Structures are given as structure tokens and as C-alpha cells.
Amino acid sequence: MSTKLEMKDYATVVRERHSVRHYDAAATISREELKEMLAEASLAPSSSNTQMWRFLVIDDPEAKQTLLPIANNQKQVVEAAATIAVLGDLNGYRELGRINDMAVKAGYMPEDFAKQFTENAVKLYAALPPERLRNIVQTDGGLVSMQLMLSAKARGYDTVPMGGFNPEKLIEAFSIPDHLVPIMLIAVGKAATPGRLTVRLPIDDITSWNDMKKG
Ligand SMILES: Cc1cc2nc3c(=O)[nH]c(=O)nc-3n(C[C@H](O)[C@H](O)[C@H](O)COP(=O)(O)O)c2cc1C
């Protein structure tokens, strides 16, 4: 891991992250550092710790050109060092056995508990209506995506999340198997132009306490 001392603090990261749409096309990010960011992102919480997110990293110039029309010709996908397709794995819960075995080996979970937990959870996920499972992988995919963007910002990079792409064409062009659902694309790179500033609704307008009727 690169030294944490070089990273921006949370207060700065969260205030200075803005969606950046113009990147320095000459600036690259090593695969090692991209993997560090993905590893930090994957510290995000997930349903039963199933981690049903998968990443397709598009960092090759030819692959970026393939992605361009699929991403509605948003040129950040060719200018940024990489674009990461965050995918939700509808079969991902099948990894729970391995995940819980790792937790046992790390001393975080008693063996009996792990066995029972895995058995119950796998049964539960396997029986879920497809729409419910899809919602779960999309929710968890949003969490990992946000964490990836914050990790990038902490390291001095910028990002833009993108829902503006054709999922069917993405699946076809990049050989994405049926059980993986595209959630969003995230371009990451060195900003050439800062992101536009945006505003947020006042917290008092969007927050209720204890009961929505009482305001
Ligand atoms: C799910 C999602 C999809 C988005 N899709 C796009 C997109 O396709 N292209 C784009 O330029 N920005 C996209 N954005 C970025 C938003 O426009 C941006 O987050 C919003 O305007 C707030 O600005 P900020 O990110 O700079 O705070 C998307 C954001 C989210 C969360």
C-alpha cells in the first residue's frame, strides 16, 4: 500500500470530491495503485458480507475506444487513466463459504458459527426472488462505488460515476457473463479541468426525526 501519510484527510476528501469530466490523457495510474484503490473500496459493507461486487477495469487504449460509444461518447472514458465497470454478481453469495472460512482462519469467527451462518445465508440468498437479489447487489455496488471514488480522491485522483451507458452493449463488447449486472462506470484519472461545483439541499429539508409525519 502507498503510504497513508500521503493521503488527504476525510474532511478534505469528502468536500473536494466533485465529478470531473476532463482528464489529462497522458496521466496513467499503475495497476498496482488501481488494485490498492479497489482493495480500499472493497472494505465497504455488504449484505451478510457477501461482497457481491466485481470490477472490470478498462485501461487499455483500444478497449477505451470500444467503450466510448457504449458510454454515450462521454470522452472521460478515453481521457481518464481507467474506467472501472462496477458489476453486481447475482451468484456472488456462493462465495460465502470461502469468505467465512477466511474469517475463521483470521480468528474472527468460530468455526461452528461460520458453518451454520454460511448454510443458512446461502439457502436464503438462493431462494430470493431475482428482483430482490438484484436490488441487493445494486445497493452494495453503490456503496463500493462511493468508497472507490473517495479512495481515488484521497490519493489525488478524480472520478466521475456514470450511469449514462448502454448495459446490453457493455455486456456484449466486454464478454460480461449473464450473472454479472452492470451497476455503474467510474472514470478515474488526473483532472485536466476541475469539476463544476454543485449544491446540496439543506439538511433540514431532507431530514425527519423519528416519525416522518412530525417533521
Ligand atoms: C448513478 C450516477 C450516474 C451518473 N451518471 C453520470 C453520467 O453518465 N455522466 C456524467 O457526466 N455524470 C454522471 N453522474 C454524475 C452526477 O451528475 C454528479 O454526481 C452530480 O451532478 C453531483 O455532482 P458531484 O459529483 O460533482 O458532487 C452520475 C452520478 C451518479 C451517482
Automatic annotation (TrEMBL):
Domain Nitroreductase: 14-190
UniProt cross-references to InterPro entries, sorted A to Z: Nitroreductase, Nitroreductase-like
Gene Ontology MF term list: oxidoreductase activity
UniProt entry tagged with the keyword Oxidoreductase: yes
The organism of origin for this protein: Cohnella zeiphila
Claim: Lipid metabolism is one of the keywords in the record: no
Superkingdom of source: Bacteria
Coiled-coil residue spans: none
Keyword annotations: Oxidoreductase
Family: Belongs to the nitroreductase family.
Protein name in the entry: Nitroreductase family protein
Pfam families named among the record's database cross-references: Nitroreductase
